[in-house]
Amino acid sequence: MSTFHYAEHVETVQRLAEHRDWPALAEEMLRIAVLNDNDEYRERTAVDILRSLPQDDRAALTRALVARYHSVDEERSQARGNALALIGIVAKDLVEDGGLLEARLLWLEGLGAMYILTPPDLMVLEDYELPELVVLAEAELAAGRPLSGAVIGLIRRIVHGGYWYAGPEMVALANKFVAADPVLNPGEAWADQALAELPELGDGWRRLLAHAVSARSARPTTKWQKTGRAVIEELGPPDAVRQTVLSWLPLVGHPRTAPLRQHPYIRHDVNAAFDPCNADALRGLAWLLSLLPPHRDTARALGALAETSLRKVQGLGPRNPSVANAAVLALSRMDGEAALAELARLANRVTYKGTLKQINTALDARAQELGLTRDEIEELAVPAYGLTEVGRAVRRLGESSAELSVRGSKALLTWRNAAGKTVKSAPAAVRRDHPDELKELKAAAKDIDKMLSAQAERLDRQFLARRRWAYAAWRERYLDHPLIGTLARRLLWTVDGQPCGYADGALRGPAGEPVAAAADAPVELWHPIDREPAEVVAWRDWLERHGITQPFKQAHREVYLLTDAERRTRVYSNRFAAHVLRQHQFHSLTAARGWCNKLRLCVNDEFPPATRELPEWGLRAEYWIEGISEDGDTDLSGSGSSYLRLTTDQVRFYPLDAPQNLAMAGTGQYRMLGYDSGAVASLPLDEIPPLVLSEVLRDVDLFVGVASIGNDPTWQDGGPQGRFRDYWTSYSFGELSASAKTRSELLTRLLPRLAIADRCTVEGRFLHVRGALHTYKIHLGSGNILMSPNDAYLCIVPEASESGGTDTYLPFEGDRVLSVILSKAMMLARDTEITDPTITSQLATSPGS
Q1: Region 357-361 average pLDDT
Q2: What are phi and psi for residue 33, nearest 5 degrees?
Q3: What is the pTM of this model?
Q4: Would you call 497 helix, strand, or coil by DSSP?
């Protein structure tokens, strides 16, 4: 607000105070939301007026604020928060007034809902709120009224964060609750569940949780572990201890049961973060689980805890890496196949650098212990999850049976009752007489889904890893492995130099001829880069003939050969330059594909390009990018620190050990800082192995294809101030990339099989669909739509278009844009049946309709 308006506010406060119109004064203070004004020095003027009032007047104003608090809608948390803060300021010295008990309790409870950042890089409690908190809390304790768990939790969080302005009085107050009840801070689902069970569980469990809360270091000390073992021994059988702890962990990450107040200075969702004190308890529980005998349920729970803790919150990043690291450390200290399998799975799923480094260290150490390579340990770590043959297992449970099978990349659990009839769910007799076996089967199905996804990603990265196997070992670890075999049998391989795939119970060449090899014959993944076009087409026909859907693109994999333009630029490629990408989505994609990227912050700092190290080839690939910040309000994140969008530039290659290129934030002017006179030159593109060049450019094509603002159907207005309209239009309906051209070729082959074949044609950059109301053109790169007449734009968000789905056979998984295009085509071919008003309104109002 302006100084002039604020002066008017101060004058109004003075006038209302002089007239002792407390309800109006309370309304004025809340209307201005004085505590949320960024200019703190201005706030003090009005606040000082309130503090200077006589005690009786302050008591009357406090009661008016309490009444106003109760009149505010529950959902208007900001207004209620303002009222509570004002109550605390005005009532600070009114501790002895028994009539203001409700005001004090309201204020304490309101502060109890305050979020405290850890580490304390931002003050969310004003310095004048802390003394009031101490005074009122001590007064309540002196009166024999215990503080609520929410207030105790706030005090703990303040001191836990190491706030320099907390002061000795606050620290002394917090020390009273170090070992007090509740042992956990309430408000999180898992903590509430544990606290609710404690009275029945007994004092031993309270000691266990108190010990878990003391886990404040990166690793448990010998003394901490010794105490932990002693506490566990008091509680009885290890299985009972494990089952109790594991019943709490699935609740971690659930919505808070007592939402915290969203402070205006904090841009991320505070209720998505972990309570820092409870996070210590989770870290301690993970370590304690590793002291128990190893069990597959423990490994599953720790793996899930790591993933939950690394789930990203916009503006915050991973929820709590320290908890994830504790779960990984616990897994690394556990013996057995299950823990190793979880570590191997996490190695292919986790992208957060600190935790991934810890996972890699654990796997490397395990490989060294067993005298194996890292690749071998990851291959041997994949369990069968109860499958007795490739992709299938049958279990008898009484008179019923369960079949656990793999269909594509998903596990399927089907049942037959005592009469041999297939039923939708487990028979009642199974639920009654075999609950443990039923639970294990359901858990195995979930484990299979997670592991298949991780292993498909690992296999997709093997092209650049130059991985080669001996035939006998490859058959055992891949082709005939009960789980991995479901992926390996859908891929193409070269066995002793001969291309083959698996069909009709054997390895076969493209003409169906059986393929055999000696035990030591070399095996590699087949790649189309060095194959004749006729062979590639033959394998695509083979896949369709056998109805095989590959777990990722292989026979249909895009191949990126040098262009004339790249021969002219010689040492860099501009093929994917001048795109506008969503930074955070780009960042996630790079991590998933094995690249190293650093989020661009709008600060005075230097940043490297996105890089992928290729140690097997002695190379490093770089994709040069820079942040866009023409307008700070619309181009930066809510916290104002990171760019929302990037613009892209060159792709270059360097020797693996070349010095790092760096550029200042907000510029793409990369140079090897400190090496101006002897910088290492980027390598000529024609010297890069064709496979490396193709796979790197394929990754970059993926980054652009997924993260570009051009494939967002809601950006037809060009985004903020329409600045990106030209780019959006050129990308949404422009020339096709290599992946879009592959999509075009595949659709041409698939169209005759579709039920809407007579209404569809592939022409140039578009799939044309003839509906009853309009003819539609779906761009094969972005999936965006133009419709007749006059190529009017039709906005359909993917969620709406995918609701109907499609059963069309596809020869590979993972192309979301292709699925979106097919779903849109199916819907638009029957445009008179569309009921979604956001779509029908556009169909009815298009020009010329």
Answers
A1: 94
A2: 55, 55
A3: 0.77
A4: coil
